[in-house]
Amino acid sequence: MDRMASGWINGLIGVVIFSGSLPATRVAVMQLDPVFLTVARAAIAGLLALCLLLAFRQKRPSRNDIVSLAVVAFGVVLGFPLLTALALQHVTSAHSIVFIGLLPLSTAIFGVLRGGERPKPAFWIFSALGSALVAGFALVQGGAASPVGDGLMLAAIIVCGLGYAEGARLSRTLGGWQVICWALVLSLPVMIALSITFMPATFSNVALPAWLSLAYVSLFSMLIGFIFWYRGLVQGGIAAVGQLQLLQPFFGLALAATLLDEPVTWAMLAVTVAVILCVAGARKFAR
């Protein structure tokens, strides 16, 4: 299997894992404070990451890597989880699809700024078209609009794109799973302290779905998903593989149809096919 194909497969696995993040976060913030949810998931993932690094005896990153790791931690360990958790108190997870549709474009832009990639002009056409299709579809579907929620989601997309691109750039020398693990470990002392500070006085009113959601975003969204995602970005290119995020909302629809018996319309299928074609076009002109 060539490097490019492997990158797209790893990236696709990462996207499938990430597709459950916003619904799980939505369930969790119904009973857990969004700040506590953010720092608790980072602390849990950080402890697991520390165990992995120690078990595989990974060499410590150099001083030159610390700033980049801090950027990754700011973008994907703290920024995106906190901003989306706050936003989902004001908007529905369906409405947030509008902004997830912009994440591939944000990742591609930071891939150019931070990763030194230079996609062909046609790439940007397919990327913008795919983003417009996802955002347009989500807007047609409707959802509770909130200026505060929309502003928080837009900020989340910007910092997430930065974290994705910076992590992929650093993965070229440090390794994919090592980057997210070191970023989590770097922020671990602060996350543990904040978890204790924002811990609720009692957990008696927290039901099982909220605990399961916390477990999912801690283990899969915060750690396992990034192992595949960063590997995919390095192998296939930040801008190119980043376009797979356009499929993330539709994986969510598939999960809803399978697990919750929600209807999947012909419009959903048509837009999905169109987005897949945009991803294929972006892949062709990415380099």
From TrEMBL:
Protein name: Drug/metabolite transporter (DMT)-like permease
Keywords noted in UniProt: Membrane, Transmembrane, Transmembrane helix
Primary subcellular site in the record, as a coarse category: membrane
Record localization: Membrane
Superkingdom of origin: Bacteria
Membrane topology: Multi-pass membrane protein
Family: Belongs to the EamA transporter family.
Statement: the UniProt record of this protein carries the keyword Membrane: yes
Domain EamA per the UniProt entry, residue ranges: 7-130, 149-280
Organism: Rhizobium herbae
Membrane-spanning parts: 7-29, 35-55, 67-88, 94-113, 122-140, 146-165, 177-198, 210-230, 237-260, 266-286
InterPro entries: AA-Vitamin_Transporters (IPR050638), EamA_dom (IPR000620), EmrE-like (IPR037185)
